[in-house]
Amino acid sequence: MSTTTTTDDDTGSGAGPGDGTGAGDREGGQPRGLGPLGWLRWAWRVLTSMRTALILLFLLAVGAIPGSILPQNVVSVDEVNTYVRENPELAPWLDRFYLFDVFSSPWYAAIYLLLFVSLAGCVFPRAVVHARAVRARPVHTPRNLGRMPYAATFTTGADPETVLGQARKVLKGYRIERYGDSLSSETGYLREAGNVLFHLALLGLLLALAAGSFFGYRGNMLLVEGDGFANTLPSYDAIYPGHWTDTDALEPFTLHLDDFEASFIEDGNLRGQAESYVAELIYKESPEAEEARHTLEVNHPLTVDGVQVYLLGHGYAPEFEVRNADGEVVFDQAVPFLFRETATFTSDGVVKVPDTGGEELGFVGVFLPSAAETPEGDLVSDFPGAENPRVTLEGYRGDLGMLDPQSVYQLQTSGMEELGSSPVLGIGDSWDLPDGAGSITFTGYSEYISLQTNRDGARVPALAAASLAVLGLVTTLFVRPRRVWVRATRGADGRTRVELSGLGKTEAAGNNAEFHELTTELAGRLRNDESDDNPRNPRSSTPSDPPESTTTRE
Amino acid sequence: MTYTLAGTVDETMASTSDMLIIAMIVTYAAALFLFAIEAAYGKRTNLRAGKLMPVTVGSGKDAGAAGSGDDDLDIDVNVRTTEGEAQASQSNLGRVALGVTTLGFVMGVAQIVTRGLAAGRWPWGNMFEFIVALCLVAVGGLLYASFRYQARFLGAFVLVPVLLLLGIGVKWLYVDPGPLIPALHSYWVPIHVTATIIAGGAFMVSGVAGVTYLVSHRAEARRALGQKVAGIAGRLPSPELLDRISHRFILFAFPLWTFGIIAGSIWADEAWGRFWGWDPKEVWSFISWVIYAAYLHARATGGWRGPKATWINVLGFLTILFNFFAVNYMFSGLHSYA
Ligand code: HEM
């Protein structure tokens, strides 16, 4: 039996395969002298053929591979930059082929757009054909039922009308049509409907994703304990708006980080593994709205005004107090340091003090949350929690170069003079700078969290489309369309000859077993009918089990 | 900042669990041995017709229950099929092997339960636990296929990769039971991971049946050329039957895999702020999905059914394995619980 998309089979006189169902294997013939229109038609047929869909599906899979091997800008811009730095020869070439942006590259888009055009060209005509088939009557009973994949015959004393009446009862769930001395029945229409639903849902998913990426945005920022954030463009460390996102009219909410706690496993061989992160946020939907609280955790984002706020990571922000040569406090704040690795949270950062009244000061620092000495005498951090916080600094004096745009995590030392290194500072310790240039005190530490905001209108539609796709998929994979015909004719001996034939449109071997069960059930019912009609029949009291076939039971 | 002790691990449970896994491996090895003997030395006998077996009653008389009396209800059945009756190499040892496998399966369940009790959480949170659960599902699939489709002949073929994977798991991936990293604290995790593990196990059975199909297909082709096929290859069931079993498991696994991906993206949305970010793990689950969709298409495309479609199926399972192993170790990504 064929499972190609021909919607009809050689037995039927119903609606033939509509023109342009396109899914057959008809692309083989080369058009000769067809003219432009003919070529176009031919190209369309090729594009919407199953074989093309198959090839495009392969390309879709193969094309995704570089996207997993090479660093991708969608995943991490930093990793891409590192890769580019390490492979200066190769990287420009890779970039030329969009290999750091595979999933937004023109060639990948070409694959999936072609696939979806092909899908649309395939599925819409199929939907039309199917809509017609659903309304059509089951096909005429073929003359020769013996040619069907399953054909059974038996005789009975019951008259033909009784046979067909009982057959209607046996064919539960089938759509039945009477043609003369026979019934034609069909079931399993949902398979095709499910298939159409599945493919349309995929199309819907694509559209939802496209819309989401054009109108949404994603942004990242840091928030130190005690600090606040207002959702405006300049407040972000990085923001990735969609093509048509209006970045001047972001949702006007504000956040305030009240408290953050990270907990780590303290001993055993999982020592240092994070156990939970909890951030206490106070937020307002808009400047006029009331304050509300939210406990932000890794799997517990905040939704505010249609924007999702997620906890991405955390780190330490040591606090420093800097005095100038005159002993005046010119700097007193927490400075976020970036961690090198999560196992120890050894963190690096930069303190910039432009307003000293004299020369500008800059410091490059290392923060060790749990400082410990190795046997070699090196100072390291051996635990991510702050059990023994220590800081070491290198000082610089001169021009910070703040007029140029620069990263807050880097110190441009080209215009500066080195002041040497500090001793290891514990909380409350100070380092008096050489030449009476002032002092810096490590006064304590706060924690900060890194947050991501995300507005993606596609979330709900995409989920709906995906769920419909699963529904359609399950339907199409498990419903078996099949046809059954029953013909009852009176023979010369006065007995009724019953023919029951079945045709499955899928390759399921279970069809024949099922057809045989229909046959035995029909025969059983007729036998009981007969015995009921004939009270002298001694078997009228036997239970009405259908006769069992030893060959069809599992 | 607070610290907790990792003392939540129940040590007796942990050691029971570790003992059970060794016992399970030994049991499976014994079953594999028995299955292999059945496959190599059993008698080739007919399988009963069933859901996946053709009904080849031919045109013979199929007597109904009411054969007596003047009411002759004999049913004359004619089934058109080019397929012969399904046969497989069978012996009583196979039945024993099935029992032994069932015993191993029960140990596997106990192992996972005790490990869950030891760690005080659902027991599939790291690579070792994934592999063990995946193998449990594959063996479960084998048992199901044996009872439902009489597909005991797959035993030797399924247990080979199962034992390999369990060996790799115990030798290289083992970690002591313990709590999870915060990103895994979500009820979507058990849902997502369970779905992918079950689908993965079913893909495994399907892939194994596919490989068996390819062997059987070649054997049949050579037989058609008049060559003799020696060894197990010549005693395999018909390729049609193997193909149907393989397809069956994909029908089950593919929607589940689809669901697993959706559940995973719901979780990703909650945990990382985006439901799809082309993280390597996501890329490879997408690749597997596309390849299995291609397999289903290939079966409906002229000229692609049979060995070609089956190769796609095998390729699909290789991508699943690649996703399980390589992606966790080779690439950096958010899914790094290796
Ligand atoms: C490009 C155009 C496409 C065409 C022409 C096409 C055609 C078809 C056809 C004719 C079937 C029915 C097969 C059968 O009845 O057994 C089918 C089934 C299916 N299609 Fe597509 N399809 C296309 C795109 C896609 C895409 C993009 C996907 C998903 C990645 C997909 C996934 C499926 C699945 C999973 C089935 C179920 C197979 C089955 O019923 O056994 N299709 N497709």
From TrEMBL, chain A:
Transmembrane segments: 53-70, 107-129, 196-217
Compositional bias segments (type: Basic and acidic residues): 521-536
Annotated segments matching region Disordered: 1-30, 521-554
Subcellular location: Membrane
Biased segments, Gly residues type: 13-23
Record's bilayer topology term: Multi-pass membrane protein
InterPro entries xref list: Cyt_c_bgen_Ccs1/CcsB/ResB, ResB-like_domain
Keywords: Cytochrome c-type biogenesis, Membrane, Transmembrane, Transmembrane helix
Bias (Low complexity) ranges: 538-554
The keyword Transmembrane is assigned to this record: yes
Domain spans labelled ResB-like: 50-515
Keyword Membrane: yes
Protein name in the entry: Cytochrome c biogenesis protein ResB
UniProtKB/TrEMBL annotation, chain B:
Keyword terms: Cytochrome c-type biogenesis, Membrane, Transmembrane, Transmembrane helix
Subcellular location: Membrane
InterPro entries on file: Cyt_c_assembly, Cyt_c_biogenesis_CcsA, Cyt_c_biogenesis_CcsA/CcmC
Keyword Acetylation on entry: no
UniProt keyword Nucleotide-binding, yes or no: no
Membrane topology: Multi-pass membrane protein
Family annotation (Pfam families): Cytochrom_C_asm
Membrane-traversing stretches: 20-41, 96-118, 130-147, 154-175, 187-215, 249-268, 283-298, 310-331
Domain called Cytochrome c assembly protein: residue spans: 124-335
Name this protein carries in UniProt: C-type cytochrome biogenesis protein CcsB
Name of the coding gene: ccsB
